[in-house]
Amino acid sequence: MNPLITAEHPESEEHLGPYERLRAKITEVMSHVPLRTRITALVMVAVGLSVALASIAGWVTVRNQILSQMDTTLSSHATQIAKEVQIQEDNQTKLQVKGNLDVPLYTDTEVVVFDSDGVINYIAPSTVIPSVQPIPADVAVAQAGGTASNFRTIVFGDGTKARAITVPVPPSEYSPGTRQALLLAQSMHDTQQTLSRLSLVSILVGIAGIAVAGSAGITVGRAGLRPVDRLTEATEYVARTGDLRPIEVQGTDELARLATSFNSMLTALARSQDHQRRLIADAGHELRTPLTSMRTNIDLLSQVFGGGESEHAAPGSGPPRISDADRSELIADVRAQMEELSVLVGDLVELSRDAKPQAAPEPVNLGDVVRQAVDRVRRRAPGLKFDIQLQPWFLEGDPAALERAVTNLLDNAGKWSPEDGTVTVRLADGLLQVSDQGPGIAEEDMPHVFERFYRSTEARTMPGSGLGLAIVRQAAENHGGRVAAARAPSGGALLGLWLPGRPTEDADSTSSGSAAGS
């Protein structure tokens, strides 16, 4: 373990604030909670908070509306009663009612009349609430007169509440200079009962909302994670049995896309396994022929040079006789079979790398690669003629893989060309075309010439493993290119390899080169 890491970790923990430590702790705890439980809790909290906030907002709104209505009614009654207060000449104040005006005074209502000095002149007591005394704010209303008023909530010693308003009394015709005020207090018992019932209803609604939220959270968690459960079961089934059977996809949401991606991965994995099985089967089939031939030839040579009896020799027979020419032919045949086997093994190793090469790409001039490949093939087939026309084409890639692919194209053309034939090589705009003067490719073989181990009926009698053109296609795909096969104007085979790049070394010309290739 690195000591620097262990030394820095406690120091970083010490520098964390309370909020960061709490968040880290919550994250650590939640990482051990099942996802279904987290989704259920999240839905419960979200819906529960929404219902609770809605209930609180409704309760506050109704409460304010009730109190506002109570204040309006109380103000109207106080103003109406204040108009009936009359001041007589002897300064003895009493509450009089003019005519038959209906001024309701209930048992839960108390009326107090006092002057600007705070002296109470009249009280109409209530049987529900205790006696109410004016406070300095009420006296200030009497002193100000006009339209002043004062609302307040009175809390008595026994816990009862009353809502009170103080309004000025209009000047009387008997004593116009006297200023008085009227205090009207009304019990809030009925209002408190209404608000209590409303609070109870809000609490019950909140609890019911949380219960519904919990049920909804469980339902949402089960329904939402059902595709994940199916995906988990499919993964466990694949790990247990190795059966890469795709799972059923329902819907078009994100989880359906995840299942589709998982199926794509299974399909790619199944295709890769199928390619591996076919490669092993085809490789075993192709290796059997040179190994059998080598075994036969070596067995014959061992009979000649071993001086003893081989397992195939007849008992009692003398050592077989073989001429020097036959012996040389056998040795050359063994050497050829060994070379063919080496080439086959190399081709198999090359094709076993399904992924792109991990080495960093480097600038490559495809024209130079083609020239080097032509020089190598010309030494192998000195009787062939090469008609070459090359234009520069630059790209980023693996020079060794590209040279191997171009060499395979030229070897294929040389194999099918007559003894003094001509191989035509053209490179323009990233398209390399190699044509020969051989018999050409049959129509039924055209779509398969770049497949692994595919050999036409005519090619089965000729040397080769059927992997050379498959290596060409793999190199083209690894470099973002493609391959194609057709019949040349001369009647032979025409094989093409296109690679994306640019006609100059300037990287800004990439787009023009890609457009030309497409």
Automatic annotation (TrEMBL):
Which positions make up the signal peptide? none
This protein is called: histidine kinase
Q: Which organism is it from?
A: Catenulispora pinistramenti
Q: Which SUPFAM superfamilies match?
A: ATPase domain of HSP90 chaperone/DNA topoisomerase II/histidine kinase, HAMP domain-like, Homodimeric domain of signal transducing histidine kinase
User: Where's the Histidine kinase domain?
Assistant: 282-503
Task: List residues traversing the bilayer.
Answer: 39-62, 198-220
Catalytic activity annotation: ATP + protein L-histidine = ADP + protein N-phospho-L-histidine
EC number(s) reported in the record: 2.7.13.3
- Predominant location: membrane
Residue ranges of coiled coil: none
Report a single Gene Ontology molecular function. kinase activity
